[in-house]
């Protein structure tokens, strides 16, 4: 999959995406990205890309002429996504949906946001990564890419079995995890996990997952 990233901070990429399994997948060519510096399309030599809001109010807005030229410079755009707290909130189901695309263009805004006409003109989909406000879309873009790349084939060790057993994929939150040593500071690993009895282990994990989901995220139970 290829991501076209439009930003005024191209140096922020690959950023966190250079490490771990996602970084290795980038090196292997499982996914790729290019950045377009929105400032290259500024209206003047000062590099202006934003202006005051019509109607008044605090905060600057990214100009449609600048963004339009930046978007038009991308040859194969695919679906265009703009990161914004007003967008639909990203979840694991949506991540699987977006994974069906070959190419996605990610528009990272700054300041108060972007001119609405750009969203309308290109039929841009707005995506939020949660109910809080970030200072720009770059971190959201990295969250978005990471969530998708780790589901691609040959990225996460253990294959699809590993990602299928995770929180949200199992219809709730994941059960507690334990590794060696079996006793640490007097805390014992639950006996059932040492029993080698696969049926009992599976039942215990399901029960733990159900209990923790009911307690922390009852909304996930209603959804399924
Ligand atoms: N830009 C600012 N806040 C954001 C959020 N919560 N999600 C995505 N992009 C954003």
Description:
The protein has 224 residues and is an alpha/beta fold. It is built from 9 helices and 10 strands. It has helices spanning 20-28, 64-72, 92-98, 116-121, 138-149, 160-164, 191-194, 198-216, 218-223; strands at residues 2-7, 32-37, 50-52, 60-62, 79-89, 103-107, 113-114, 125-128, 183-184, 187-188. Strands 2-1-6-5-8 form a 5-stranded parallel sheet. The chain is elongated.
Structural class: alpha/beta
Question: What pattern of helices and strands is seen along the backbone?
Answer: EHEEEHEHEEHEHHEEHHH
Overall 3D form: elongated
Ligands: adenine
Summarize the helices and strands and which ones pair or pack.
Elements: E1 2-7, H1 20-28, E2 32-37, E3 50-52, E4 60-62, H2 64-72, E5 79-89, H3 92-98, E6 103-107, E7 113-114, H4 116-121, E8 125-128, H5 138-149, H6 160-164, E9 183-184, E10 187-188, H7 191-194, H8 198-216, H9 218-223
Parallel strand pairs: 1-2, 1-6, 4-7, 5-6, 5-8
Antiparallel strand pairs: 3-4, 9-10
The chain binds adenine.
Concise description?
With 224 residues, the chain is α/β, with parallel strands linked by helices. The chain has helices at 20-28, 64-72, 92-98, 116-121, 138-149, 160-164, 191-194, 198-216, 218-223; strands spanning 2-7, 32-37, 50-52, 60-62, 79-89, 103-107, 113-114, 125-128, 183-184, 187-188. It has a five-stranded parallel beta sheet with strand order 2-1-6-5-8. Strands 3-4-7 form a three-stranded mixed beta sheet.
Descriptive tags:
alpha/beta; 3-stranded mixed β-sheet; 224 residues; single chain; 5-stranded parallel β-sheet; binds adenine; 20% strand; 10 strands; elongated
